[in-house]
Structures are given as C-alpha cells and as structure tokens.
Amino acid sequence: DSGVTQTPKHLITATGQRVTLRCSPRSGDLSVYWYQQSLDQGLQFLIQYYNGEERAKGNILERFSAQQFPDLHSELNLSSLELGDSALYFCASSATSGGGPDTQYFGPGTRLTVL
Amino acid sequence: GEDVEQSLFLSVREGDSSVINCTYTDSSSTYLYWYKQEPGAGLQLLTYIFSNMDMKQDQRLTVLLNKKDKHLSLRIADTQTGDSAIYFCAVPGGSSNTGKLIFGQGTTLQVKP
Asked: Using one digit for the tens of pLDDT, what is the confidence trace for A92-102?
C-alpha cells in the first residue's frame, strides 16, 4: 500500500459526459501528479500540483482540468468525454516539488471506460 | 521533447538474469528511475541512479548508465516468478524544480518456472 488513495476504482460513463477523479496524497506529501495510461499512448504525464499551485503541465487536453485543494487532495475533471479517453488514470504524490531524487508514490488508479 | 524507448517484451527462465534496456534523448537528465508495475496495481519505484554515476547496485538489482550513448539498463539477478511485471524506465521531463517524469513504453518481463 503506497498510502495514496484514489476514488473511484472504476468508472463507466457515456460519451459527452463529465467525470471527476479524486486523489488523496500520502500524509505529508505536497506534490500531486496525474498520469494517464492507455494501450496506445503508454504512460503519459498530465499535470503536477505543488502545495496548491500548478507546477508542471504535460499533454493535458483542454477538456481536462485539475486542482489541488488546501487539504492537499486533488481532483481531475474530464469533460466532453470521448471514446479515446478510456484509460487508467493514476495519481502519484511526492514530498517535494521535484528535482530528484524525489520518489513518486502511485495510487492504484481509476479505470475509466467511456461507452 | 524528451523521448524514452524500451523494448516491449522479455522472457527468461527462473534463476536466470534479466536485462531490461532503455534509451533516452535528453542528456541533461539528473536522475533516472526504474519503476515496476504488477498486474492490477500502480507503479512502485524500484531504484534510481544519479547521472554522475555509471553503476548502482541494490541487492539483486544492478543499474548501468552509459551517458555517452544515453543508455540505461536494469539487471535483475536470479530472476524469480514474482519478478514478472512491467518495468518502466523514467527520466525527468521538465525544468529542474518539477517532478514531471517521461516514461518509456514499459517492458513486460515474463519469468518461466
């Protein structure tokens, strides 16, 4: 158990809908990361928040947004969902803002299926 | 941008050594990482190496870094069936004060009894 929790574990929804994925980091960790894992794209970095502020951005679609709250939990919002958004979404947390070596601890993931 | 490449599949017999290879493009990477993903689980950090090192050993794991060729390898000695998993090489992909990681496609290690 990494100490990072993600809810829900599974999510099935329809195209055009909007969903929210939730992540609670390990106690004491200030950074939260979101990654998308799919068969065709592999594991892709989406976004990093550090202590409530956006720190780094990857290939995150404009339909996707995230935030980190004062209690450090984070939410990833996916809207206008398309079939291609079906993937495993991982949250990770780490103690610092990065620069290494900074171990990222991964949650178990949320499997999103868009029908 | 940064690109990280790995072979997709490796099959070995129990007790043999496994060598998983990775190449990357950005020579400014300071730390390079190996993660392991077991079926149905998230990733867990196995080990990392600092870019000024050529080799790092950690029990059954040996990491070799060839900076000139931008080549990283992970050797698992005495491979066990419990080592069957997907192994990811990862390098920093952002500025020095971010934790953004670029992952390879992952190498599926199959260990036959």
From this structure: 999 988 766 77
User: In this structure, is the dihedral angle defined by the CA atoms of residues A108, B59, B80 and B71, taken in order, positive or negative?
Assistant: positive
Query: Which residue in A61, A66, A64 sits closest to A32, CA to CA?
Result: A66
Best of A102, A103, A105 to mutate (most B CBs within 10 Å, chain B):
A102
- pLDDT tens digits, B91-101: 988 776 788 89
Query: What's the confidence (pLDDT) of residue B65?
Result: 96
Residues of chain A with a CB closer than 8 angstroms to some CB in chain B? 2, 4, 31, 33, 35, 42-45, 48, 55-56, 58, 90, 92, 94, 96-109
**Range 12-71 of B in CB contact (< 8 A) with A:** 30-31, 33, 40-45, 48, 50
Sign of the dihedral through C-alpha A68, A69, A74, A80: negative
